[in-house]
Amino acid sequence: MKAELIQTLHPQAGKTNKKISLDKYTFIRENILSILTESELTHTQLMEELFSRVKENFEGGVQWYGETVKLDLEARQIIQRTATKPEKYKLKTTNR
């Protein structure tokens, strides 16, 4: 049986992102959101924390999938970059 895929989005207009396994997308997404619930992190810190959390239970390039899913979450306005230097990532607050 073929794995179900998801077309990920890219935050930059005109750019397309990758189609990846829905299972891998969901796993990485849940971990990124869990990490960002705890604190705001730079790109390097986020990818290092993601790698340390999932390396034992993930088949594939953690950083590659992490970057793809991070871009998708930015495009969907679930996470955002801060205006600080260095830039950090955080969960976007909504008024729902």
What does it look like?
The chain is of the alpha+beta class and 96 residues long. It has a single domain (18-91), classed as Orthogonal Bundle (Arc Repressor Mutant, subunit A). Helices cover 45% and strands 12% of the residues. The protein contains 3 helices and 4 strands. The chain has helices spanning 22-38, 43-54, 62-75, and strands spanning 5-7, 19-21, 79-81, 89-91. Strands 1-2 form a two-stranded antiparallel sheet. A two-stranded antiparallel ribbon has the order 3-4. β3 and β4 form a beta hairpin. α1 crosses α2, α1 (22-38) packs across α3 and α2 packs across α3. The protein is globular and about 45 Å long. The N and C termini lie far apart (38 Å). InterPro entries: DUF6958 (IPR054233). Pfam families: DUF6958.
Q: Label the overall shape.
A: globular
Count of beta strands? 4
Q: Which class best fits the helix and strand makeup?
A: alpha+beta
Mean pLDDT: 94
For the record, the CATH class is Mainly Alpha
Radius of gyration: 13 Å
The unreliable regions are none
Beta-strand content = 5-15%
Strand order of the largest sheet: 1-2
**What is the string of SSEs from the N terminus onward?**
EEHHHEE
Q: What's the name of the CATH homologous superfamily?
A: Winged helix-like DNA-binding domain superfamily/Winged helix DNA-binding domain
Q: Tell me the CATH architecture.
A: Orthogonal Bundle
Amino-to-carboxy terminus distance: 38 Å
